[in-house]
Amino acid sequence: MTRRPALAVLAAIGALAAAGCGGSDSGAGSASSSAAELSVEAAYMPQPVSDSMAAGFLTISNEGGKADELTSVTSEAGEVTLHETVDGTMKEADRLEVPAHGQLVFRSGGNHLMFEKLRQQPEQGQSVAVELHFAHSDPVTVELPVKAATYRPADGHSAHSEHTGH
Ligand SMILES: [Cu+2]
């Protein structure tokens, strides 16, 4: 009697390894010259109108030659989830890509950080600290200054209606 579960397991591991890093070039190892190089700018939180919920926006730039992924955001202020807007409807995202030589942009009407179960309602002039966690890069801590509820960065527009569905 022969048993072959070991083979099946090996095949599964092989498939995982192949799918793991998404890159078509080089695989693991000596990639120090092509790692993601992340920086964050334009972070802010419009002063929330709700005492338990708020949105946050920022831009993550990647100067490096390798893509990374934002996998989660944590904050002492409350629970944070990633939301993306697809065809005008927002939905929670497990992770969002930061493309090589590109940007992951959170802005009104598009991707946003969703704060829920806030311990206290942030007010203009305060700031909210968040920690960004990535698939490959080290975590990055960012302060989101709380702006007026009507604050819009240069090309923003009407943000409020999009959160009435929560
Ligand atoms: Cu949302």
TrEMBL record:
Organism encoding this protein: Streptomyces olivaceus
Protein name in UniProt: Copper chaperone PCu(A)C
Alphabetized InterPro entries for the sequence: LpqE-like (IPR007410), Lxx211020-like (IPR058248), PCuAC_sf (IPR036182)
Alphabetical UniProt keywords: Signal
Keyword Signal: yes
PANTHER family: BLR7088 PROTEIN (PTHR36302), COPPER CHAPERONE PCU(A)C (PTHR36302:SF1)
Endpoints of the signal sequence: 1-17
